[in-house]
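Thread: Newbie trying to understand structure tokens

Hi all, I'm a second-year student working on a class project, and my supervisor (Dr. K.) asked me to get a predicted structure for one chain before our next meeting. I've only ever worked with sequences, so writing a 3D structure as a token string is new to me. If someone could post the tokens and maybe explain what I'm looking at, I'd be very grateful. Here's the chain:
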Amino acid sequence: MIFLRYENFREYLRYYPVTSAILALNLLVFLADLALDGRLFAAGAFFQHPVIDRYGLSEPWRYVTSIFLHADWEHLLFNAFAILVFAPPLERLIGHFRYAVFYLLAGILANAYSAAVHVGAGDRISVGASGAVYGVFGAYLYLALFRKRWMDEGSRRTVYAILLFGLLYSVIYPRIDIWAHVGGCLAGFLMLGMLAQGRNR
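---
Reply by user tm_fold:
Sure, no problem. This is what the structure looks like when written as tokens:
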């Protein structure tokens, strides 16, 4: 099972420096936002207006900054746990630099996909790392379907169960942006596919 973590704290930092940095950044941004009474949230959350900013492009940095902002402790801890447990094998598989680019692109593309779905639907504000997290899940889905020798059976079952649970959870709780999850998953699936094809060549 590739998702079981046996490392101690120092080993985790050494083996997975990008994942560790992402976790630290998420926590530090959340604490700073609490100290600043939500000013970081206001400045960095992804915002979409049905008329004057249909795709959220008037302040394009929000496509990135919103990935590192969270609405509350529960939101932060849920995403942080997913990153802590599931991101390390992917970082080891594709390398630190490529994983950093992969994570950011998955989050950005998740925001873009959700924006395209919601265009003209009203004011919309969203934050959270879950689009990028689902990019990680999408990468594992590609491996589970097309590179089975790279993943054991228990890990494949875990990926299927997580995606099924995530879909049901996203439908049950309306505050969750299911389209960001779908967009992130598709982005991760396609990006890992391109990396795998490149490795084959």
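A couple of things are worth pointing out once you decode it. The CA atoms of residues 48 and 168 lie 25 Å apart. The chain has one domain: 9-200. Feel free to ask follow-ups in this thread.
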